Amino acid sequence: KKWVYLFTEGNADMRELLGGKGANLAEMTNIGLPVPQGFTITTEACTQYYEDGREINDEIRGQINEYIEKMEKITGKKFGDKENPLLVSVRSGARASMPGMMDTILNLGLNEDVVDVISKKSNNPRWAWDCYRRFIQMYSDVVMEVGKKYFEELIDKMKDNRGVKQDVELTADDLKELAYQFKDEYKEKVGEPFPDDPKEQLMGAIKAVFRSWDNPRANVYRRDNDIPYSWGTAVNVQSMAFGNMGDDCGTGVAFTRDPATGERGLFGEFLTNAQGEDVVAGVRTPMRISEMEQKFPEAFAQFKDVCQILEKHYRDMQDMEFTVENGKLYMLQTRNGKRTAQAALKIACDLVDEGMRTEEEAVSMIDPRNLDTLLHPQFDVKALKAATPMGKGLGASPGAACGKVVFTADDAVEWANRGEDVILVRLETSPEDITGMKSAQGILTVRGGMTSHAAVVARGMGECCVAGCGDITMDEENKRFKLGGKEYHEGDIISIDGSTGNIYDGVIPTVDAQIAGEFGRIMAWADKFRRLKVRTNADTPRDAKKARELGAEGIGLCRTEHMFFEADRIAAFREMICSDTVEERVEALDKILPYQQGDFKALYEALEGNPVTIRFLDPPLHEFVPTEEADIKKLAEAKGKSVDEIKDIIEGLHEFNPMMGHRGCRLTVAYPEIARMQTKAVIRAAIEVHNEHKDWDLRPEIMIPLVCDVKELKFVKKIVVETADEEIRKANSDIKYEVGTMIEIPRAALTANEIASEADFFCFGTNDLTQMTYGFSRDDAGKFLDAYYDNKIFENDPFSKLDQTGVGKLLEMTIKLGRPVNPSLHIGICGEHGGDPSSVEFCHKIGLDYVSCSPFRVPIARLAAAQAAI
Ligand code: PEP
Ligand code: MG
């Protein structure tokens, strides 16, 4: 088996095997761009490494050694050579890009002899020793997992001793001394001397990259981005180009369009006399790419050409890393650049207008999950105008955030778990901070540019970020900072604007975002291509209106019990639950009826004749019975009973397993008067609206929850039909209605052919269906799912991403059994999965008629449905 490929042997279509970076390095080589040559070890080798118990087997080792020789021939350099030594970078590269999640090692191949050689050859001992100390530092950290901090402490000590502030002010001798100190540190921590043999160094580095596929931050990133663990990462071994050899050298990162706004034009950052890591890590704040033109006119001109070639070639915005060594340009990487949702929409539309992409392709280019950010709040314009910023950084990831200042990722997680909104303020962020960044409303950093870790990751997460606010005087240790003449402590409130980079003292109110412009254009295209309809889960007219604005074509689920969350309504609801005679219950139901009728009317009006599915009561009782003494007393008074009597009733309602208890249609089987009342409310409201809007095709869909047997449905349906027909007859109306059921218990799926004979429609309640198929409580699974991720039993939460293998099979079976029995049966899904892109794709594939999801996920579902159809 072939485990290793030279860059000249691959191409862009081989990303599964070579990873994104490897495939693109090969492609750039093929189209004649200046790429330092090397080879790629395949993703299959990574999978094999894990299969072999985290070892690189002899066959793969053999091929790596063989390819080192090939590389030596191509470059004319040799590992450890006294004349022309080969130095390489070792970088990870998975199929899908995972910026900053895995490890990189630069300057590999150095030892004291080689340092002497390159120092003499370049006549630049400072550079040579700087490379060596960097290499020792990276290798120790990445390969041997000796913390970076030990080395940073040594650097700080050295700077103190020499009385200098910046790394670049250290002399060759200082760096040489540092390298020796680093080696001693390594020996002390690892227990062995630092390896001198480049081949040994290389095997260690390759192993470390494979191992980094499984590091905690990569695992979190994969879960968030739907990247399977089984893919593995490739490893790229590339001949070094040096950006830190002197003032005619440098390194940069650039995008062919602005990754924040999508505006055309080169956008990026450049650092002279530096290595790639310096830009990405945000240790020094770099210059804008346009300033590079003055320093390196030739290399810049060439770079601009390369950008054009690459953008045309890939027909997408490119994100490139490059190095200038002694004035000469080298391309180290290109990929389709990560971008904000706003930029993604603009770029997709522009590419269509420029004739580079079709509308279908443009729709397929947008990650549906990304749209979320566009729907996030922005600052209230008036309040913003009235506010004076106390400082400014780079607007690194758009959105508005307001919250209490915290200084560590752990604090961000802890405070957020307590329900606080927080802004994570850091000198700079590192990949270990990812969970903290996720928990925060926004991120503010003192150092780093638009391509720093914080900026890249925040954009990926759609989280507001202001980066590189150098005016902040930071005191991380004592959890305080100074800005604009004021000292801020943990817990103080600030607001940050991720578009302008402005930082404000105190609270600035936020408002909801608008859909317009490019968003509207892409959505219109998406609607043209999709087959699946998209409805919404909405229980209030307000949510329904919002969902309509966002493109919902109906209500797929109105949870009627949710209409009783408000304080004045819940009282009536409790009176109904805690009744012990039919008369008492009917009395309470009579109080509920007008609420329901009014709500339903408002929902029909908001939907303007589009379908409205009303799900009959499904209250897990424990969510509704009163627990507070005051509430119990109030209920007792309302019902004219003693507190003890009420407590007895509550005691009697106690269930060991409420989610599998007396809920759903089981309530109606015991208390038919509930269904009677709800039917009256549904039909009376419909008749009212129908009389006012004869042109609307109003046809309420009554949905019976938690059915497991056709006889159950038959029983409830009879009550519904009798009541509804009576209402319609009395009103002399011609209104039509449907009665259908949720499929959310495995037995319902298994007997769908029987149930279909009694149902006008099916709607999958995949929350309960997942709960009951797995036997995992949907309320408690969060407590143990982490252990499942840690042990690689699960890669995702089956409650957010539909389990296509198991639960999905039940869905397919239901459709297959149900449709032949009732060809007019319409089928949808209204569990949480209805707004998850990969689940939507599955729903399309198995032939559902519609998905239904929360209002803010409607655009996501529309786009995902279009992508599934393209
Ligand atoms: C479901 O079970 O998937 C569903 C939509 O109903 P609920 O979440 O209200 O139980
Ligand atoms: Mg349910």
UniProtKB/TrEMBL annotation:
UniProt-annotated catalytic positions: H453, C830
Organism: Lachnobacterium bovis
NCBIfam families tied to this protein: PRK05878.1, pyru_phos_dikin
Keyword match S-adenosyl-L-methionine: no
Keywords, alphabetical: ATP-binding, Kinase, Magnesium, Metal-binding, Nucleotide-binding, Pyruvate, Transferase
Residues binding substrate, per UniProt: R559, R615, E744, G765, T766, N767, D768
Pyruvate phosphate dikinase AMP/ATP-binding domain mapped to chain residues: 16-288, 301-350
Cofactors that this protein relies on: Mg(2+)
Domain PEP-utilising enzyme mobile: 420-501
Binding site for Mg(2+): E744, D768
E.C. code: 2.7.9.1
InterPro entries (UniProt xref): ATP_grasp_subdomain_1, PEP-util_enz_mobile_dom, PEP_util_AS, PEP_util_C, Phosphohistidine_dom_sf, PPDK_AMP/ATP-bd, Pyruvate_phosphate_dikinase, Pyrv/PenolPyrv_kinase-like_dom
Keyword rRNA-binding: no
UniProt GO MF annotations: ATP binding; kinase activity; metal ion binding; pyruvate, phosphate dikinase activity
One protein family per Pfam: PPDK_N
Stated name of the protein: Pyruvate, phosphate dikinase
Class of the enzyme per the UniProt entry, highest EC level: transferase
Lineage: superkingdom: Bacteria
Transmembrane segments: none
Entry's family note: Belongs to the PEP-utilizing enzyme family.
Catalysed reaction, written as an equation: pyruvate + phosphate + ATP = phosphoenolpyruvate + AMP + diphosphate + H(+)
Residue ranges of domain PEP-utilising enzyme C-terminal in the record: 517-868
